[in-house]
UniProtKB/TrEMBL annotation:
Any one Gene Ontology cellular component term annotated for this protein: cell envelope
Requisite cofactors: [4Fe-4S] cluster; Mo-bis(molybdopterin guanine dinucleotide)
Keywords of this entry: 4Fe-4S, Iron, Iron-sulfur, Metal-binding, Molybdenum, Oxidoreductase
Organism: Microvirga lotononidis
The keyword Cell membrane appears for this protein: no
The name this protein goes by in its record: Anaerobic dehydrogenase, typically selenocysteine-containing
Gene Ontology biological-process entries: anaerobic respiration
Entry keyword annotation includes Oxidoreductase: yes
One annotated GO molecular function: oxidoreductase activity
Family: Belongs to the prokaryotic molybdopterin-containing oxidoreductase family.
Amino acid sequence: MNMELSRRGFLKAAGVGVAGTTMGAFGFADLEAAQAAAIRPFKLTNTMETRNTCPYCSVACGIIMYSKGDLRKGEAAEIVHIEGDADHPTNRGTLCPKGAALKDFVKAETRLKYPMVRKPGSDKFEQVSWDQALDRIARLLKDDRDANFIATNAAGVPVNRWTTVGFLAASATTNETAWLTYKVVRSTGIVAFDNQARV
């Protein structure tokens, strides 16, 4: 496409751009916001709101998930929209690019939804139940702690250390959950304890 722009045409186009920007600065852009606010409720009609925390970084932004399908009637709820929670004190409705794309994260085909285990000598993972996974984790942790717990140091001073296991906590939690996680992990004697936010 060959387009020739004269100096006079350029000045006219620039003038229109400046006028549009000026009108927006004077508040006429609120008309677009009002139209969007009028349309939005129709998009989310008959949806159920669920408040949660974004699963990414340690900021712990609040999100609202909208789902269709009434669980009381036995219907499967499907998430149709996710947005920032305007009432949340951390993010006040804003989300970073990863948080704004949470719906794609939830609906990803490759998302892991169930515990998987790869048995010794196997070349593939197999799905197990949550009870099996938690029982196995608890058993392995108990066996390792019993075998490697250090109650006292060489001078006989109680130290209560468990140095053969590390714990990596999730950062997208509330302060109360983070405090409880810290207390539980430290009470077992685990020394190597870190948070996802620093990874």
